[in-house]
Design a protein that fits this description.
Blueprint: E1 2-6, H1 12-25, H2 37-50, E2 54-59, E3 62-71, E4 81-88, H3 97-111, E5 116-122, H4 126-134, E6 138-149, E7 152-162
Parallel strand pairs: 4-5
Antiparallel strand pairs: 1-2, 2-3, 3-4, 5-7, 6-7
Helix pairs in contact: 1-2
Amino acid sequence: MITIRPAREADLAEILDIYNHVILNTTAVYQYEPQTPEVRRAWYDSKLKDGYPVFVAEDAGRVVGLSSYGPFRAWAAYKYTVENSVYVAADQRGRGIARLLMQPLVDSARGQGYHAIIAGIDATNEASLRLHRSFGFEEVAHFRQVGYKFGRWLDLKFLELVLADSPAQPVDG
């Protein structure tokens, strides 16, 4: 049975394995080199320090997926918008795990008062595009040939979910 819970420090090795497999074998992450345990620990510590959630999907004691969000862009006016990430272990894809990991992200973003969530998705990643659309994300941009990986140019799509129940006019601070 798959359970979704906040990530713990003890999950970092399995999180790293999932993420590095994605880097080395897919276009879901536009990076070439796998991360080190130190880099992934710094990522996790930064998420905790900045108040961003990290969720994991666990099945029979094994971490089989993760999700999180963080800042969309660094400039102050973007502070009510976050960008999400969802990754599932290669041998666990197609089981609905990504769907289970998405709902707590959306709920958390609403609860933290964010107004919008952006998803940057490789244009050929139909599974991720379908997943996000099923949560109400809409395509707002298609960038052509902005990435290069595995000997080919990659298109990137931006999808957006406006959280309708978040404040329409937040107080600047």
